[in-house]
Structure formats: structure tokens, C-alpha cells
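Reviewers asked in the last cycle whether our approach scales beyond single polypeptides. To address this, we selected a multi-component target totalling 540 residues and predicted its structure end to end. The input consisted of the following lines:
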Amino acid sequence: MKLDVFEIISVGNELLNGKTLNTNAHWLAKTITKLGGFVRRCTVVRDDVDDISSAIKESIKRKVNWLIISGGLGPTYDDKTLQGLAKALNRELIVNADALKMVEKKYEMMAHHGMIKKADLTPERIKMAKLPKGSKPIINPIGTAPGVMIDDGYKKIVCLPGVPVEMRAIFKESILPMITKVINNFYHEKSIHTTGIVESELAPLIEKALSNNPLVYIKSYPKGYEEGNAKIEIQVTAMAEQYFTAKKRVEDALEQLKSMIMAHGGMIEK
Amino acid sequence: MKLDVFEIISVGNELLNGKTLNTNAHWLAKTITKLGGFVRRCTVVRDDVDDISSAIKESIKRKVNWLIISGGLGPTYDDKTLQGLAKALNRELIVNADALKMVEKKYEMMAHHGMIKKADLTPERIKMAKLPKGSKPIINPIGTAPGVMIDDGYKKIVCLPGVPVEMRAIFKESILPMITKVINNFYHEKSIHTTGIVESELAPLIEKALSNNPLVYIKSYPKGYEEGNAKIEIQVTAMAEQYFTAKKRVEDALEQLKSMIMAHGGMIEK
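The resulting structure, written as C-alpha cells, was:
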């Protein structure tokens, strides 16, 4: 089974000063995993050209297939993702004619609807159309800043805006179809909840279930105690080339695990 | 003003397959920023010794002062943070007598309360007391796995459990007092909400406010449109050695920004 390795880079001071919870990375990780992609790492950096550039270079060095970057595409001085990307790839930032048309159209529409007075292409608006050489703009169905795509065959770099609705819209409309075209894996996961067994007692049972089912991943999450009774969630996941194979592997492992847990005095919650 | 540079590493497949939203990193970033620390980067890696080890090494190479790692301290096979840390630092993993006592005490208490049958120090339980040479265990007031601290003077590495209540409890009880002892900076932030001005119109105003107030950071967050009216949140932040200095810088910048926005036909929401 060939795995497509994804990494996510989230850009924004607000993610590192505690203002904003990084729901973008969570949504991307969840969506990509469900599509059969393997999300290996997520990095959160500040609005700093050098920090953005080095995170991108490190990711490329680790031989990523898909690098998804979100945040920092807007018109303000601290939207620096494309500068960071240009620096990482050692490419010039140039006004992309297609991107400029997309931006222009948005502001014309906004002026037409009376949302702004002038649709002029000010430096701040042109900035959103300055892409690293060799990039393609991606239509933003909601906001003004286009997404950006660089496709070098083996590795693809995608830049999405940080505004969650815009990020999701571009991803669903333009990136998701590209991913499903090249990925043929299926991911399946199922969780059970146990009581009456602590994690250290569960650990050897999980190891046994894993040695019998080497193609699944089993992970336990302690959920505290209720009336002195340990509560644990156990998640079993598998990736396979066929959906029913992934599903069967998860179910087989879960069945074995359940029997072992009950034999040890634990209970499975319905 | 001397800045203490923090980085956060979150360990766990569940953070990269979309199961779990990384609220730990958010809580840590928020808490550390409020304490006057500078959070430069957050990295999320899978339960993999090599991935954990390389993330730690990269962070150390970037000359971090405080590296806060959460997740992967428990008794199961996939709790690999201490193995990764030992590998990154090229130190042996050895049973720490103090840590073993902490673990032992927890299970004795659980057996005493009838939560488990036997308090034996099984390999899975001893595992939580195997720390990289030169580490100190930190009392976990809630769960069984102790936290871990390595203090090399210039750089401090702290490992916390991934279970949020345990992570927060150890941080508040043991790490927060250490941080406040060495950090003397104050962070202040204030946000306003504007309507009737789009981000590309706001951008030059923010730049002007910044050139007048170079010691603050101003960031805008587009919040969509209401009845064709652009809504934007603007956050102004500052760090200073005195609380009132940070506060005054934020307020001065905000006042200037507000006047400029209103002069441009924008409105400030009350």
C-alpha cells in the first residue's frame, strides 16, 4: 500500500498567543485522514517570513507529498505566507495575471453591491495576486485572497486562507478532488468505551491484540474515574486499499480486544 | 527586554488523524503568553520515536529556552515520548527511584480504594518511571504518570501527560511557579470590532498605526459580512517589562486606529 504523506503548516501569531484554537489543522487532518491520506506532522509558526520559510523547507526535506499551508494570504502587512514560500523555494514573487483577475473581479463585485466605494487595485489588493513563480491561483469562492498551488509532481504545495470558511470552501471545491484522484486508500476507525480496568492493566491486552492484528493501530485514552471506576476509550484504526478490508481489520481486532477485556473483569459500555 | 522563547511539542496520532482537537497546545500557548513568555512554534508529531526525537532536536537547535512537550507518558506501548526524548538527547532511559515511588504510591492508593485488584509494579507501570538520565520527575496530582523535567540552565525541557486535566494540573502546580520566577514581562491584548470597512482598506491604516506605535502588534481577522457590511476584529497586543507600559501601548495604538477607521467611514462596535 502506497501512502501519500501530508504535512500541515498553520501560520498565525493568533495560534501561538492563545487567541485562536487551531480548528483549521484539526479539520484538515480529519478530512485528509478520511480521504486515505497519512498526516505525519503539523507545524504552527508565527507571521514571520523566516519562520514560515524554514518550516516549509524542513517539511520538503522530510519528503512530504502534500504540504497544506493555511493562513497568511490576506492583504495586510502581516500576511506573509507567500513571501515565506517564495523564500523557501528560492523563487521570485510576481504578480500572477490570473490571480489578479480573480482579485479584481471580487472587488468589482463588492463595489457593484455597494460594499466598498472603490474597486481600485490598491497595493494591498495587488499583494494577494503576487505568487511565487510557477504557482497557480485557486479560486476562493467566498473571500478575496485566492488559494495557491505549486505542483512539482512528486510534491504538491497548497496555500489556503486562514479564515475557516474560506479555507474549507477552497479545500472542498479544488483540493479534495485532486486528492481523491491520486489516493486509493481507505481509512476506518471505531472506538469502544470500557470501565473497571485501568490503563496499565489494559496495556498488555492491547499489545496482545496488536500482535494478533499487526495491521491495525490501537490507542487508549483514559477518561477519568466514575465512582472509583476507571473509564477508558479505545480507538482502533486501519488503512487499506479496500474499504471492507480496513473495516474487517478494525472489527476483528476489536472483537478480540473486547473478549480479553471482559475476561480480565473489565466491562464494555454499550 | 529579554524574551524567554517557548516551543510546544504535542505528541499523539489522535491529533493528526482528526480524532482530537489540540486544546492542550492552545491552553499552553494562552497560559504561557499571559505569563509573559514568547511562544514561537508548536509542532504536532505522531507516536513515533524518530518523529518525536527529531522534533525535539530541531527545537533545541533553534535555541529554545523552554520546550514543553505533552502526551505520550502513559503505560501503553505507544506512549513513546520519553524514548524519543532520550534518543534526542542521547541519554539512557533508566528507572528513576523518585518516579518509581510516585507511581507505586498511586497504585497502592488505587488498590486501597478497591479501584484495582493488585498494586504490583508490572512492566507497564515501571515504564512510566523510566526517565532519560538526569531528569527529575514531577508529581502528577491527578493521574499515574509523573511529569518529567530536564533543566540545563539555559534550556528547560518539560514533559506533561496528554490527558488535559493532568497536563493542566502539573503545569499549574509545578511549572507555572518556575516560569513566573524567571520571567518579568507582561503581555496585554485588546480587541475591537469594526464594520463598514474591508480588510484591504484597513491594511494601510494598520500600517500607519504601527509605524506610529512600533512596539505593538496589530492583527486583523475578517469575520464575514452582515447585510453587505464587512465585519472585522482587530487585536492589538504588546509585551513590556511593566504591566502599565504594555497596557498604555495597546491603548494608545487602539485610539489612533479607531480615529483613522472612523475618518475612513468605518464604525467601531461598542
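Chain B has two domains: 5-182, 186-268. We regard this as preliminary and will revisit it once experimental data from Aim 1 are available.
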